[in-house]
Amino acid sequence: MPTATTKTNNTIMSDNNQGFSSSFGAIMAAVGSAVGLGNIWRFPYIMGKYGGGAFLLVYLVFVFMIGMVLMMTEFVIGRRSQHTPPKAFLHNRPDKKGWKYLGYLCVFTCLMIISQYVVISGWTTHYIVDSAVGTLSSLQAGDMAQHFNSFVAHPWLPVLFLLIFTIITAFIILGGVQKGIEAVSKILMPVLLVLVLVLCVRSITLPNASIGLKYLFSPDFSKLSGEGILAALGQALFSLSVGMGTMIVYGSYIPANDNIFKTSLMITASDTLIAVLAGVAIFPAVFSFGQEPAGGPGLVFQVLPTVFNSMGNIGTVFAVMFFFLLALAALTSAISLLETIVAWLCESSSLKRSSSTIVVTIAVLAIGALCSMAYGPLKEFLILGDNLFDFVDKLNSIYLPPICAIGTVIFLGWQMKKDDIIDELSNHGTLKVGYFKYYYFLVRFVAPIALLVVLFTGIINSLQ
Ligand code: TRP
């Protein structure tokens, strides 16, 4: 375990006591973080909406040129420092204490994202049960929306499922980095791939599947507006889980002899592949049964249950499989979010990993439950005109991740020593880094500008 030799008492490792044990484990854990609700309910829908193949092309450019560059940046900062966000920045630039605030912002962003993520993951977990016991299959197409709305407005049922989901996540974190996160990711990610593939086969063998495939893939550049281009960029960042310090923490767990460039390339490619496969699993089936394409909760909790019902008895099996898939994708993402906060608390307080996990889990449960109740008992409670869930959603989609991401690329591009970056990317001179000048250019100029555009257009749109 190469990273083990670099640990001292005040690194995160002292309490979490080891990083990932293998390259494969590291990649599976990071792919687990990246593959989440965004891949399944957001990517396929925006791809179809903004011109299919045309959108995919733009997305590929952004995800490899900006998303992957950010991932490499976070890995470099994390692995070089062996610390969580606030200290990771300070370690790389000890003379500029102010950078620690960027670290705090990253941890806060993770807390906000996970609090929202567990709400939706709880809904998903409930829908596994709902489809398994036949509740969904007994509903008519017209009743799906009503069923969903009354479930999320229920005073305690969604909170109960949020609790179940969050506690499962917390148990995995309690297991530790290798025996919890890595072990679980190494099993769940291949399972997830198999589930997506099975659903893909079912979907493309349905009658008229080609309509859905056409919606997804046929390139239509007239639909690719400026809005579509921005959506591609925003999705490229969100989908790779970059811009909130998660990959700094995972970076600190990456084995010392792993090639950061190759690892990031594999993670980016796998995440993109799964997003495209999710589209193939969903849209041919949606069109085949005469439903309208949609994204987000509407797609997952209303359109798809109707599609599964149209498949007859076997539909139940596919429904359970689909919601299970979605819950797995959400679980491995939630793990990385919780880990970031727990690792930070562990490092910056005298609490042990187990106590840190308990404290953070209680905080997530509290904020998550409040967000969840924004659809029910706390409907009337508004912050700046939004209910709590929508308020947190705005923070998470418009403000926090781009701000953290801009800070992170500026930190590496303009504050760290070039030689240190090369040293880390080349594993102290043992790997060739012929790509470096392109990477350095992207991180110093292209990424900050692109991120600023995302931030400002997001703010402007939200004010309109
Ligand atoms: N990438 C996740 C998805 O596609 C969402 C996400 C964004 C995330 N930032 C994250 C997950 C940080 C874990 C950690 O759904």
Question: Could you characterize the architecture of this molecule?
Answer:
It is a single chain. The protein is mostly helical and 464 residues long. 75% of the residues lie in helices and 1% in strands. The chain contains 19 helices and 2 strands. The chain has a two-stranded antiparallel ribbon with strand order 1-2. Helix 2 packs across helix 13 and helix 8 packs across helix 9. The longest helix has 35 residues. The N terminus is likely disordered. Bound molecules: tryptophan. Tryptophan (TRP) binds next to helix 2, helix 3, helix 11 and helix 15.
Q: What gross morphology would you assign?
A: globular
Would you identify the regions where 5 or more consecutive residues have pLDDT less than 50? 1-10
Query: What is the number of helices?
Result: 19
Category from helices, strands and their pairing: mainly alpha
- Count of DSSP strands: 2
Report how far the terminal alpha carbons are from each other.
53 Å
Oligomerization: single chain
What is the mean predicted local confidence, pLDDT? 94
Radius of gyration from the alpha-carbon trace, in angstroms: 21 Å
Strand content: under 5%
Element pattern in H and E: HHHHHHHHHHHHHHHHEEHHH
Side by side, the strands of the main sheet go 1-2
Bound molecules: tryptophan
The main pleated sheet reads as: 2 strands, antiparallel
Helix content: over 70%
